[in-house]
From TrEMBL:
<dbReference type="InterPro" id="IPR003593">
    <property type="entry name" value="AAA+_ATPase"/>
</dbReference>
<dbReference type="Pfam" id="PF00005">
    <property type="entry name" value="ABC_tran"/>
</dbReference>
<dbReference type="GO" id="GO:0022857">
    <property type="term" value="F:transmembrane transporter activity"/>
</dbReference>
<dbReference type="InterPro" id="IPR017871">
    <property type="entry name" value="ABC_transporter-like_CS"/>
</dbReference>
<feature type="domain" description="ABC transporter">
    <location>
        <begin position="17"/>
        <end position="239"/>
    </location>
</feature>
<dbReference type="InterPro" id="IPR017911">
    <property type="entry name" value="MacB-like_ATP-bd"/>
</dbReference>
<keyword id="KW-0547">Nucleotide-binding</keyword>
<keyword id="KW-0813">Transport</keyword>
<keyword id="KW-0067">ATP-binding</keyword>
<dbReference type="GO" id="GO:0016887">
    <property type="term" value="F:ATP hydrolysis activity"/>
</dbReference>
<comment type="similarity">
    <text>Belongs to the ABC transporter superfamily.</text>
</comment>
<dbReference type="InterPro" id="IPR003439">
    <property type="entry name" value="ABC_transporter-like_ATP-bd"/>
</dbReference>
<protein>
    <submittedName>
        <fullName>Abc transporter</fullName>
    </submittedName>
</protein>
<dbReference type="InterPro" id="IPR027417">
    <property type="entry name" value="P-loop_NTPase"/>
</dbReference>
<dbReference type="InterPro" id="IPR015854">
    <property type="entry name" value="ABC_transpr_LolD-like"/>
</dbReference>
<dbReference type="GO" id="GO:0005524">
    <property type="term" value="F:ATP binding"/>
</dbReference>
<dbReference type="GO" id="GO:0044874">
    <property type="term" value="P:lipoprotein localization to outer membrane"/>
</dbReference>
Length: 242
């Protein structure tokens, strides 16, 4: 017998997201056209493209919120099926963290109470979740007092939103215009925090942005046009790679 059991392993351990042949059409219009994308652990990828190119459509498909016409999405070795099934919800909960433009924090709660919400949903005891929330805030360099989240600055709030996205230790962090509502100083601070995470935590980041300054901070930039992704070239002249 020369069969090597390890050769049957289903995926390279460092592949967090594998999108293959993803096709999504709305009526006559094919928005995603046999699109491929692979994200490795420890990487940051910026997704750019003109308005209407299909960036949100791609994120929705990755999150299992939209049924594709063809293709497959695999997250940490698990097939993501669109729909409201318990399996889809579990994959999302266990593997994915989301950061949105406006944070979607609950103003009246303290940062720690905001951050622990996804952990409580996942069944983590409140005391354990709070301890972890404080540890993440410390890792992100944010000292927070026990006051309402509404009293924090935009940049601080966005870092609180990042902490909330990290509470369940996701392997895939999706950030949809995370700096869209921030001034340049806060934008840079939030990006400092985000781009450090793949090295600190081993996760992969997929970052959707219209801001070239933000995209430049990623290890690679993928442009979505005509339903396909293509690597663009960093200002330094280095190819961003696939
Ligand atoms: N449910 C839907 N039904 C019909 N058309 C849709 C639907 N969802 C999206 N579209 C269309 O698909 C195209 C891609 O939309 P999408 O929101 O993915 O673009 P985007 O790149 O995220 O744009 P933006 O940068 O403006 O957010 C657009 O033309 C949009 O109108």
């Amino acid at each position: 017998m020369d069969a090597n059991p390890s050769a049957t392993a289903s995926r390279p351990a460092n592949e967090v997201l594998v999108v293959q042949g993803l096709t999504v059409s709305f009526g006559e219009r094919t928005v995603l056209d046999a699109l491929d994308l692979t994200l490795q652990a420890g990487s940051t990828t910026a997704l750019i493209g003109p308005s209407g190119a299909g960036k949100s459509t791609l994120l929705s498909a990755i999150l299992g919120l939209l049924r594709a016409d063809a293709g497959s999405i695999t997250i940490c070795g698990e097939a993501m099926q669109a729909g409201n099934s318990a399996a889809t919800a579990r994959i999302r909960r266990e593997h994915i963290g989301m950061v949105f433009q406006d944070g979607y924090l609950i103003d009246e709660l303290t940062p720690v109470k905001n951050i622990i919400v996804p952990a409580l949903v996942a069944g983590v005891p409140a005391a354990d979740a709070e301890e972890r929330a404080r540890a993440i805030l410390a890792e992100l360099g944010l000292t927070v007092q026990e006051r309402a989240t509404s009293s924090f600055s935009g940049g601080e709030r966005q870092r609180i939103a990042i902490a909330r996205a990290l509470i369940n230790s996701p392997q895939l962090l999706i950030a949809d215009e995370p700096t869209g509502s921030l001034d340049p100083a806060n934008r840079d601070r939030v990006m400092d925090t985000l781009v450090a995470l793949p090295q600190q935590l081993g996760c992969a980041i997929l970052l959707v942005t219209h801001d070239p300054m933000v995209a430049q901070r990623a290890g690679r930039i993928m442009a979505l046009t005509d339903g396909k992704l293509a690597a663009t070239v960093h200002q330094s002249g280095q190819a961003a790679g696939r």
